[in-house]
Amino acid sequence: MNNRRRRGIRIRPYTFTGGRTRSRHPLMLQTLVSVADPGTAPPKNLLPESEQIHRLCREARSVAEISAELKIPVGVTQVLISDLADQELIYIHPTITGHSPSENQVLERALRGLERLFQ
Amino acid sequence: MASNVSSNDKSSMVSTKIVIAGGFGAGKTTLVGSVSEIPPVTTEAMMTEASEAHDDTSSTPTKITTTVAMDFGRITLDEKLIMYMFGTPGQARFWFMWDDIVRGAVGAVVVVDVRRLADSFAAVDYFENNPQVPYIVALNRFDGELGHTVDEIREALEIRPGIPIIDFDARDRRSAGSALTTLLEYALSHPTKEPALAG
Q: Is the distance from CB of B21 to CB of B110 less than 8 angstroms?
């Protein structure tokens, strides 16, 4: 367990993820994630990287922001988030893609927001 | 056991994304910087590229992992809706990354430097061949003059009829914002029927 602390930074990124390069959840660059229960500290058995993600996600953050903030490649970030979601530690927010007519209301809200900001 | 029914309203936050595409130096990052509420972030994206072995035509394609810098910005549109803007890498050799950046996008703005139209071919071509992603073309007015008519540009870049072409100044906040507004209006009036690409 203490070995983790001594791990060098040159370790290959996918070692964190057990070699997996795909997440099981639909995580796009813009997908927001936040901790399931903001009042709780991260469990002690998490990888340091997962713990950092857990701390960062007290506020909703996108996959891209988490990757940039923690300097973890996007693909690795996706796998770590997916694992945290499997453990029900974090919540994956819906991502609006505009591919379904049911999302039109949100797109209209987006348009109104843009008009408010830039007109 | 954590419940997935969260009572706080934070869980009702959703996000969306638009893509800012265009040739190298066309003004993509300038556009993002003009409208983003955070300084544009450059992050390393590690993507897997299916590449063909160029020295052995009989071999199966191999996968290599490549690291590419990617830009993005953010706009909070209301208390529960955040829009991200992602710039595509300008260099054609990062072409393979576009699918990852475009996946799930509401639409795209192709920024064109009219002094270097040829640099925009690749981006226009990509979206002409991906009709499930609504896009508009935004001509970046660097020196105040376009020098071409919109019709000439549509013809030169082979932009299909109906795709909005606007001119704007990427450095100007309102002007850059109007490009995003035009895209959203267009996306809303041209709903796509394709389902989202699977994970």
A: yes
